[in-house]
Design a protein that fits this description.
The chain is mainly α. It has a two-stranded antiparallel sheet with strand order 1-2. Helix 2 runs parallel beside helix 11 and helix 8 packs across helix 9.
């Protein structure tokens, strides 16, 4: 692993500090950048995420994508965790911490909004950043795209009913502009760009092997820009919320604790299930990452719509954004260190082929 990627956690820590400093030193600039949004989707952050996602989209091979159904285990784990476990464990943790553990430290009557913010996060699986985490763990780009696409399709129908069930609120309006815009910016546009790029490179190659080599070389060259995009995103996210972090540190910590427990707990469930089920690492790692990370744009938009811009529920969803990046990077590190726990799919295929030969 290159030195730059090996010390990625250090660069992220420095980016967090830089973001907080930027928010204090140039509040006007940060406010201007934060205002460049529509439907709770910030266009500056969207462009940076596009740079992060694009290299992985170039690696998507549609001929292989058609065979994803031949390995259903990863899909089963992802769907089970995202829709049958995660929203309910998030609600349970919210009740535990804000009705009991932190009840003496929060304003009376506000526990419901803390819990609501957590539920809104827990019911929204990630759409964009999971491509980055998958790339950092050398995940299968075809399988990751299929998993995200299937989750997005289910989210259109399941998000509002699950949130309504857990919140006891029936008049939830899904912000379609946020959902559609996010999917378009984070999935469709970079995917189309990746398809065009891949088509240009493979058309020039004299053989399939050389075509794959050309794609691999290209993604290796652009990967540093993906990492720089991640660091710039961290700077902006912490710059946008720097004032909240510095003025309400205790509240931030209280919100972060159950979110951390949820994130690491959900990852453990998905990752160890994949290991026990002998799922290859390049599928298991993205599978666990999708269940762990959240579609924070959607959660923020719904929180603002239901409870208001300055509500505690909206604050919880914002803290979810801030907690997620460092947590996911730590899980990327863990997944890379434990790749040897999982079966090597390529080695198994070669072994089966050698046995089949006379």
């Amino acid at each position: 692993m290159p030195v730059f990627e090996r010390y990625l956690s250090v660069w992220v820590a420095l980016a967090i500090i830089a973001g907080l400093a930027l928010g204090q030193v140039t509040p006007g600039l940060v406010s201007f950048l934060a205002s460049l949004e529509y439907g709770s989707v910030n266009f500056v952050v969207a462009i940076l995420i596009w740079f992060m996602v694009y290299p992985m989209m170039v690696a998507v091979d549609f001929s292989s994508l058609a065979r994803v159904h031949e390995r259903p285990k990863g899909m089963i784990i992802t769907l089970t965790v995202n829709w049958l476990i995660k929203p309910f464990t998030m609600a349970a943790l919210g009740l535990l911490f804000f009705e009991w553990v932190f009840a003496p430290f929060i304003e009376p009557g506000t526990a419901g909004q803390y819990i609501a913010g957590m539920i809104l996060l827990g019911a929204a699986p990630c759409t964009a950043m999971v491509f980055v985490w998958s790339q950092l763990t050398k995940g299968d780009p075809n399988y990751t795209l299929a998993q995200v696409s299937l989750n997005d399709a289910i989210m259109v129908f399941a998000y509002a009913p699950i949130v309504a069930l857990l919140l006891g609120v029936t008049d939830i309006t899904v912000p379609w502009e946020t959902l559609v815009l996010s999917v378009g910016l984070y999935v469709v546009i970079p995917l189309l760009a990746g398809i065009v790029t891949r088509a240009i490179m493979t058309r020039r190659a004299p053989s399939p092997a050389q075509a794959e080599a050309a794609v691999g070389a290209f993604t290796a060259r652009v990967k540093p820009f993906s990492i720089l995009g991640l660091l710039a995103t961290v700077v902006l996210l912490f710059g946008f919320q720097g004032e909240v972090i510095l003025t309400r540190p205790l509240v931030i910590v209280m919100i972060a604790i159950p979110l951390l427990i949820q994130s690491y707990g959900i990852f453990a469930v998905a990752y160890w299930t994949a290991r026990a089920w002998h799922v290859p690492h390049k599928v298991a790692a993205p599978c666990a990452m999708i269940g762990t990370s959240n579609f924070f744009e959607l959660a923020v938009a719904v929180a603002i719509g239901l409870f208001g811009l300055n509500s505690i529920a909206a604050l919880v969803t914002v803290v979810g954004v801030l907690v997620e990046v460092p947590v996911m990077l730590s899980l990327v590190w863990f997944a890379n260190r434990t790749a040897h726990w999982f079966p090597n799919e390529e080695r198994a295929i070669r072994r089966r082929r050698s046995k089949a030969q006379p």
